[in-house]
Every structure is written in structure tokens, then in C-alpha cells.
Amino acid sequence: MTPRPSGITTPSAAIDLTPPDGHGPARKAAWGLAPAPCTQHEQQLVDLDTGESRVGREDNGSVANPGGAELLYWPDTCTGIGDYVLRALPNTRVGLLRADAPRTAEACKAAAGTGFAALPLSEGRDTKERGFTVGAAVCAVTADGAVAMALIDHMSGGATTDVSVSGNLYVWPQASNQGLVP
Known about the structure:
The chain is mainly beta. About 10% of the residues lie in helices and about 35% in strands. It has two helices and twelve strands, in the order βββββββαβαββββ. Strands 1, 2, 7, 9, 10, 11 and 12 form a seven-stranded antiparallel sheet that branches. A five-stranded antiparallel sheet has the order 4-3-5-6-8, with no helix packed on it. The longest helix has 8 residues, at about 105-110.
């Protein structure tokens, strides 16, 4: 197996921004994962409604209060480099939209129901086999009922360094029934 080059980047392919039934127009933001050195004992929580992340004290992949976050990026062992693992938080609907799949809200919504188990991002073979590659997207139906498509536009790092990921985030908010007259 050849090592994955550091800093792989690709522009986002065409995305169909048509909202799925029951959702409003897409909002665009950015999202990302950036590991802290294990000596800082930090884990990152990512809220796919907004793309915002917050850092909390590392607790072996455990989270007392997810606060609306869907993803957790934490150091699994802190024995060296390449220790960070990404997973969906319990009671969330998160999945992976492969790079060759249509980039639509409906496809992302369907992918969100497939699940997203823990994935050590520094293990290039596993990430590639599972489809976590540049051009793919992490998809979720969020706690607020929105459909979120977090594109993997850039990945850096690999087998000898912790991996950083970033890209565009498209969020189709759930349509509100408030103020509608029957």
C-alpha cells in the first residue's frame, strides 16, 4: 500500500441544491476536523447544523453533553501520532455519501440512515475502503431535523500524523409549520 499524500484537495463537484420535501433552501457554511496534540487531552465535537465545533476534555470517546453535535473526533490512545478517531455520536443519524454518489439532499438524507461507526482517520486503507475520501461527504439528519451534507474537500495528514479534514457544508433546514394558515 502506498502512503496517502498529505494535503489532498479537490474542488467540490456540482451539487444539486434542490431542497428535499419538508425542507427549506440550503445554507452554506464550512466545517472541519483539526486534532489537538494528545498532551492537551482534547476531543472535538462538530454540530452539522452549523459546522461549528467545540473542544472538550478528552474522555476516551465518551461525551456527557453532546449539545446538538453529531460527530466526535477524539484521541483513542495518545500513544503517539495518528491516534484520532471519528465517529457519530449515539442517537444521531449520520452516514457517508461516497464520492461517486449523486450530490443531492435526497441522496444525503438516505445516506444518513446508513450509520457511521468509529473510523481511525490515520489508517488510510480503512478510510479508503469505507469511502471516507476527498470527494465524499458526511451526511446527517440533525437534531433540528435538517439535512446536512459536509463535503470532504481537503484532507491532510496520514499514517504518521493526525488527519485534518475540511470542506463546504450545505444544510437544508426543516420547514417550519409556524405561521401557516390551513
